[in-house]
Design goal:
Length: about 475
Amino acid sequence: MTAETVSADPATKPSRLDAIFKRQKAAFEAERHRRLEDRKADLKKIEDMVKARGEAFAAAIDADFGRRSAAETAIAEAGFTIATAKHSRQHLERWAAPKKKPVPMTMAPGNAYVRREPKGVVGIVAPWNYPMQLALAPLVAALAAGCRVMIKPSEFTPRTGELLKEALGELFSEDHVAVIEGGPDVAEAFCALPFDHLFYTGSTHVGRLVARAAAENLTPVTLELGGKSPTVIAPDFDVAEAAKTIAWGKFLNAGQTCVAPDYVLAPRGSQQKFAEAVIEEAGRMWPDVAENGDYTAIVSEKHHARLSAMVEEAKSAGATVLQAPFDKARAGNTRIFPPTVVVDPPLEIKLMTEEIFGPVLPVLGHDGMSEAARFVNERDRPLALYVYSKNKQTARRFLARTISGGAAVNTPMLHLSVEDLPFGGVGASGQGAYHGEYGFLTFTHERAVFETPAWHPSRLIAPPYGKVFEFFKKLQTG
Ligand code: NAD
């Protein structure tokens, strides 16, 4: 049976969604505790599918973006998904095992433990920027936990969405995994379903709507949102050296990465040197972006126009704009946006008030790490934060003064590839986390159990209260 597409007819959408949801619910009731062997087989099927269809996914994502580096798709989508599925398979027995807890003397004798049980039927809403990884990695976590899953891919990457539907439809019955294609109207109806958990990745604006819809059903949510991830260079770190990895992190996927460095705070006076080094580094990694198959395009005309308008606004405001050489005529692709660095933009313009989500990097000067921390703390809590320093203590002190979903020192983004670290935001950049055991727990209900023998001394702590009660009270309060 193949996974189902929901009809474009508005009158039928909610009822068809509802029908799939009910079938999944019934299937879950019939198999509340999917055997670990079966879950591992589910994950292995995903691994094998991604290996077999790697090129097809690369082609679909390339077509959706207008150009997507096949190498970046191989590591950041397919490779990432395979690694996460394998890791979950290898650790599943340990994650799923009941966790024994100590019993206080006043409650003895007895056994206390936590049963890790699947939550039930869960929804996953995925964005377009890594359309394979951000649909399949949460799916892996949900299947590892033993859940039934409905996935809603982004309407901006329809070919990838279709391929996901076809590929997953071959592996799973619709009452186990269903892919629901459609735009914001379908997404809205999807988020209104009374899921046992809703996992959303996308913008902060839509995240609020999703949280509101989930609240109606008291559905727990994970919100993997975006924001402006700062990168701070300490005075002891050579800015030209920092530019090498920052350029990579910023221009990978043409900046359309949730954890890409959004802006840089460099020691005052070094902004221009840093900006020039970033452009030079970008030119080394992605020479001739017009025709370079490894330089990804912007996902839509609308997104491209937004980035152009942001840079124009910066120019009009008097900021210096440095851009990698770009021969538009040769590009034959209207959605290529060359690597761009903006030096000292005013703080009120869009570049400094909205998440950029493209290959444009503002750089501002700071007068020391305390001032840099203040700058970060005056803004929304970011998804990621990067600090560059030769001194571990300087970096750690900076982390202690700030808050972010995750962080990395002397590199951008790599924290998300360490499977055992939780990945998620805080405040405006999201809530909840996944990856590794954290992903398994996101889709797991931790059920508290206390087993007592047929006769338990607690029976003595009952009215009429007397000497035994007084003795118990003393024991309890020490
Ligand atoms: P998008 O436009 O593809 O939207 C994401 C999903 O939300 C889509 O499936 C869409 O159909 C759905 N959606 C749209 N309107 C909706 C509604 N009213 N109710 C429910 N769902 C709705 O993607 P986007 O939002 O442009 O994604 C980019 C954003 O995502 C950036 O802010 C980025 O930082 C963030 N992001 C975060 C992470 C993370 O892991 N934290 C990862 C990738 C992207």
